[in-house]
């Protein structure tokens, strides 16, 4: 064999190996999850399952310490979230978050020198918001995380920046044939397919409709398009990949849209999508002004959460093991909700003394505050600032048509968005009381915008 021939042969052999590396090498395990004949089988590769299991072992932990003695709020100078923890609980949590987020860097990753009270480092400011986010996930998103919940470790796993985050993709360079509509730019997050490469901005930041099947039999009013379908598929590839499952984990492929034929995890996934939108909107997006430029995406936005941020290839993060029994302080929003609502429930039933109120309207399907709503809220925030004893109640209303559970969730998200806006303006969370979502008067003649509103009332 000449040298040239040998080279060609080597290239051929290597090429074949590379091509085959894309396929699953046997053995594969198949687990039947649906009725026979529906093709609802999960296909596992025992080798990747073993590797994944090793990555999903819980980190070492210590049992919780008693909540006795003076609180962190009394002892330390600048504690805003964890103020009702005992000093023992507080210190243990500081040690835990160091192990979960910055094991190499230590306390100085968030604290500068000896002055633990200083907020000079952005990492501390971010971490404070992360504490609130973690409590919010565990308290308000049980529809997705049930009692398993999350801690900083679920996303961070010992890294200051979680392994899986995303930022808005830069605009595509136009192809010779014009607008590529986000396609033919394979990205790892969507399984290197030629589907739209950034399904996250429309679906996990904005609240675009995730649909393929039209709502009507005939074309009249059927606004779904092939282009829209491709965005949906792109998100679905991300979801399957993040959870390490096939499409049939959630769907019966006879009809992807049909909820009756879908498996229960699809409903959990539905809530997951809403939760991710909420986290990005309430927590990660507003932090863009806190992060240094190097941490921001090309579009100047902050790194955000998607399904892979928590799941990291597992159908449940950490295979469903919960770290919360050892960390009850992260399981709920303490102080804020508990201490404030009891006296206020009585106050709410009597006529409000101040009587200052506003009706904030929202767009269909969206929990985002409009500019008008922001403007209407401003005088109420001023009133709250002027009187430190005044409190504010929020009640979300939703329309009586459509899926009640979805509507109720949306009403809650809207109220939470209003709460976030008031908190951002500097009003403490314990002065804001959330009421249960309510159904607006049925509006027979189409959608009444007042059905989608949050009532805000200041009370002295
Ligand atoms: C990932 C960031 C992070 C790391 C790492 C971290 N802390 Fe903190 N620390 C915070 C945040 C956030 C607060 C404020 C909490 C609040 O506002 O409720 C805080 C507050 C404190 C305070 C209260 C200071 C005051 O007077 O207000 C002390 C004491 C403290 N941390 C000690 C430690 C020690 C000791 C370590 C290392 C074992 C550590 N922290 C590691 C984020 C961090
Ligand atoms: C749902 C996933 C998730 C959870 C839970 C979570 N984080 Fe984060 N965290 C993120 C994302 C996403 C970022 C943004 C990455 C970036 O730009 O730094 C981030 C950034 C941070 C940063 C800034 C790091 C840097 O160098 O920029 C700190 C500090 C941090 N988180 C601390 C915490 C602490 C402490 C907790 C637990 C109380 C926590 N996080 C819980 C997702 C999470
Ligand atoms: C973790 C569960 C889960 C997995 C895995 C999953 N999906 Fe979905 N899928 C959903 C949910 C939830 C919706 C509805 C989203 C919504 O309405 O907000 C949906 C919607 C869809 C729709 C739109 C149906 C309609 O109403 O028009 C299609 C098509 C679809 N998925 C296809 C797929 C394909 C193909 C895969 C595999 C690549 C896949 N899905 C994997 C949960 C899942
Ligand atoms: C904040 C972290 C977090 C994020 C982000 C997240 N999940 Fe989850 N998810 C969890 C936890 C924790 C569980 C386990 C709940 C339990 O024990 O049943 C879970 C469970 C699930 C399950 C149930 C699995 C089963 O077999 O019952 C599905 C499906 C799921 N997630 C889909 C998604 C999808 C789709 C996304 C992205 C749109 C997503 N998750 C984003 C934390 C997260």
Percent of sequence in beta strands: 5-15%
CATH architecture of the largest domain: Orthogonal Bundle
Helix/strand structural class: alpha/beta
Bound molecules: heme C
The helix fraction, in percent, is 25-40%
Tell me the name of the CATH class of the largest domain. Answer: Mainly Alpha
Number of strands: 7
Q: With helices defined by DSSP (H or I, 4 residues minimum), what is the helix count? A: 14
The number of domains: 3
Mean model confidence by pLDDT: 82
Q: What is the 3D form?
A: globular
Compute the CA-based radius of gyration.
25 Å
Task: Tell me the major beta sheet.
Answer: 5 strands, mixed
User: Which stretches are low in confidence, meaning pLDDT under 50 for 5 or more residues running?
Assistant: 11-22, 334-354, 441-446
CATH superfamily of the largest domain: Photosynthetic Reaction Center, subunit C, domain 2
Q: What distance separates the N and C termini?
A: 94 Å
CATH topology heading of the largest domain = Photosynthetic Reaction Center, subunit C, domain 2
SSE order: HEEHHHHHHHHHHHEHEHEEE
Overall description:
Helices cover 38% and strands 7% of the residues. The model is unreliable at 11-22, 334-354 and 441-446 (pLDDT under 50). The protein has helices spanning 3-21, 46-55, 72-75, 87-101, 122-140, 142-145, 152-156, 200-205, 226-243, 264-284, 307-311, 336-349, 371-386, 404-424; strands at residues 29-32, 41-44, 356-361, 391-398, 432-434, 438-439, 453-459. It has three domains: 56-163 and 318-331, Photosynthetic Reaction Center, subunit C, domain 2 (Orthogonal Bundle); 188-311, Photosynthetic Reaction Center, subunit C, domain 2 (Orthogonal Bundle), CATH 1.10.468; 336-459, OmpA-like domain (60s Ribosomal Protein L30, Chain: A, 2-Layer Sandwich), CATH 3.30.1330. The strands form two sheets. Strands 3, 4, 5, 6 and 7 form a five-stranded mixed sheet that branches. A two-stranded antiparallel ribbon has the order 1-2. It has 14 helices and seven strands. With 460 residues, the protein is of the alpha/beta class. The structure holds heme C (HEC) (4 copies). Residues 137, 144-146, 148, 150, 154, 239, 243, 265, 268-269, 272-273, 276, 305, 307, 309-311, 315-317, 320 line the site of one heme C (HEC).
